[in-house]
Specification:
Length: 602
């Protein structure tokens, strides 16, 4: 993974750029930093490239990469398929070679379309004077821009998100002549006639009036790497009895699941997810090559781990592919619960019991006892750890308890996190951004034989479960939508959510995780996984007439059961901001969608 930067200036005067962004980029790519300037006299323009590389696999390839024709590439991505990269090669060099051999726009688009994996890039094509840039189909890598009259800046951090609707091309000759920039857009689409009409509007909203965005009328598009969403709705409503809020026992839920055999779908899903995880955990830096494996060697892969079904499945599948001697780090974040208030009767009782040694569990009423970090995700995380230990007792599972206090939260939010979450700005972005930042840092404690010892995860790859809820109807708003507008409404909601996941989540999470010199990887957003899930009709993925903890993400729950997981297969969704209790910490009555004043960078 990398921090990339490009400054395009159409004015002949030498342009000094603000190097504060440099610091952010260097944290993303600590292993090699280089700048490269391309100046052209006629037409007159200047491009400054800067790239900061985190070494992940193959030989370290310093960037920017310049080929013998004078083309320049800065690449923040991973090639997981579509273009062959053998383990000894570095994917940047391979992508550069592929682009270098292209002589037309359609060839460039076809190279970019064929790459499976996350990417953001800037490419200077010397022949014809073009500057290309863009993000992959889902927008899994952050790319931001800032546009002034004659200057365009692109970077992995700071400014406004480049909409992940396609790739962009600037004709530098034309731009120098007119003195303004025109962004030619080649959108992601299944076919020429399938380009979303909102595409140009989305872009126009994020560029100044002095610039224009145009669609290329030659009909060139990037072919979408996933198949279209299956829009079919069931002919007759399912006969299942509706149990809306019933409290079923674990046994009941298990029986319900057992009665829902969907073997083919479940096996296909497991197979696709397993391959997606495999592609994301192999070829990593810390693999001890040649030398004999140490039992206590460090993990190369970590998982953002709440013990919920999404992260449990990732852990169970990672266990299949990561060498047996290597540990896996499970990152579990908790924010300190506030001191219980004295107002209520039960709270007073709670206080009295405080001196006695008690089992530190949250009681029925949700009141806490001695341990302020025993938040819901910590409790389910520990239970999940137990399940994984049963699944593979030989594996060393490092359950990293990351306890965050209010003081530390405030300090790090001001110093770092607010810059990374930016340009996103809601209370929800603040909560998730902070929770993910502390989790990804991986600094906490692990327990060994009852002893707690300080521990920092050294894994450079972090798997996250994002994308499961958006595709398998995991959120409570999906239930609400299903109730009011049935399967049709639900399908529309799911399509809309997957479409906006880049601007809502992925850019932010990439910046937040990348800040630790670690790379976020999203198995649920693997092209083949999404394609498979898109092909399955919605009622196979979720059955929202069934109770919470079963109906939503039904297909995934069946997969979890098949993989041998236990109670975690029927845990209801708990959003990270509540599970980690960060939302409680701020002690105010703000809504998730409100602008968050704590994020103001001043
Ligand atoms: C990359 O940089 C990180 C942080 O400075 C360091 O821990 C790591 O060993 C470096 N990796 C290589 C391959 O140089
Ligand atoms: C990157 O990979 C290419 C192709 O495998 C190789 O020729 C090149 O030497 C590598 N780059 C560096 C800096 O090692
Ligand atoms: C569309 O793309 C083709 C190929 O790159 C190019 O020759 C043509 O000028 C473009 N048309 C517009 C309207 O930008
Ligand atoms: C972290 O929180 C856990 C509660 O899950 C607690 O048992 C542990 O003592 C805490 N560790 C530290 C060092 O605060
Ligand atoms: C959608 O699902 C239905 C029901 O399984 C199936 O018959 C149909 O072929 C699917 N359509 C697409 C486009 O995959």
């Amino acid at each position: 993974m990398c921090g990339i930067f490009c400054l395009l200036s159409l004015s002949p005067t030498h342009f000094e750029w603000d190097k504060t962004v440099y610091g952010h980029l260097k944290r993303r790519g600590p292993n090699s930093s280089r700048d490269l300037t391309v100046t052209n006299g006629n037409p007159c323009y200047q491009c400054i490239f800067s790239a900061h590389v985190l070494h992940m696999r193959g030989l370290l390839t310093a960037q920017p990469v310049q080929d013998d024709k004078g083309n320049v590439l800065v690449w923040n991505g991973e090639v997981f398929g579509g273009v062959t990269v053998i383990p000894e090669e570095n994917d940047t060099a391979v992508v550069s070679q592929c682009l270098s051999s292209c002589s037309s726009s359609s060839e460039i688009l076809s190279v970019l379309s064929s790459i499976q994996g996350p990417w953001g890039f800037v490419y200077y094509q010397r022949a014809g004077d073009y500057l290309w840039f863009g993000r992959d189909f889902f927008g899994r890598r952050s790319l931001l821009w800032k546009i002034d009259a004659e200057v365009l800046m692109l970077s992995s951090s700071a400014w406004q998100e480049v909409p992940a609707v396609g790739v962009y091309r600037i004709d530098l000759k034309a731009a120098t002549v007119s003195g303004t920039m025109t962004f030619e857009v080649y959108p992601w689409a299944h076919a020429e006639n399938d380009v979303p009409s909102s595409c140009i509007q989305t872009i126009s909203e994020s560029i100044p009036n002095s610039c224009t965005a145009v669609m290329n009328h030659s009909g060139l598009v990037l072919s979408s790497p996933v198949c279209p969403l299956n829009m079919s709705i069931p002919e007759s409503l399912s006969e299942t009895v509706i149990h809306p809020n019933s409290h079923l026992s674990f046994k009941d839920l298990e029986q319900l699941l057992a009665s829902k055999e969907k073997n083919d779908e479940v096996n296909f899903l497991i197979d696709a997810l397993s391959k997606a995880v495999r592609r994301r955990v192999l070829c990593l830096p810390f693999e001890s090559q040649g030398s004999s494996p140490f039992i206590n060697s460090r993990a190369s892969v970590a998982i953002l781990f709440s013990g919920g079904i999404d992260s449990m499945i990732l852990a169970a599948l990672a266990d299949r592919h990561i060498p047996a001697h290597e540990p896996i780090d499970l990152l579990n974040v908790a924010f300190k619960l506030q001191e219980p208030k004295m107002q209520t009767e039960s709270a007073k009782k709670q206080r009295k019991h405080k001196n006695k040694p008690t089992d530190s569990k949250t009681n029925e009423a949700g009141l806490r006892t001695s341990c302020p970090f025993d938040v819901p995700d910590r409790i389910t995380g520990k239970a999940g750890l137990k399940e994984l230990q049963d699944l593979n007792p030989e594996r060393r599972w490092n359950f990293v308890e990351i306890n965050v206090t209010q003081e530390e939260l405030q300090k790090m939010r001001q110093e770092r996190i607010c810059h990374l979450v930016y340009p996103l700005d809601t209370v929800l972005d603040d909560s998730i951004g902070c929770a993910v930042w502390f989790a990804a840092r991986g600094t906490g404690f692990i327990r060994e034989g009852g002893e707690q010892s300080p521990f920092t995860s050294s894994a450079k790859v972090i798997l996250t479960g994002i994308g499961a809820d958006e595709q398998l109807a995991g959120y409570s708003r999906h239930r609400a939508r299903f109730k009011t507008s049935g399967h049709e409404g639900l399908i529309q909601e799911l399509a809309m959510e997957l479409g906006r996941i880049s601007s809502r989540n992925l850019g932010r999470d990439d910046r937040v995780i990348g800040d630790h010199g670690k790379e976020a990887r999203f198995p649920y957003l693997d092209e083949n996984v999404v394609s498979y899930l898109n092909s399955v009709p919605v009622w196979e993925k979720a059955d929202l007439s069934l109770p919470r903890g079963v109906g939503e993400k039904l297909l995934l729950r069946l997969a979890a059961k098949q993989l041998g997981l236990g109670k975690s297969a029927v845990l209801p969704k708990r959003a990270m901001q509540f599970g980690s209790r960060i939302a409680k910490m701020e002690n105010s009555h703000e809504k998730a969608s409100d602008k968050c004043t704590r994020l103001l960078t001043g």
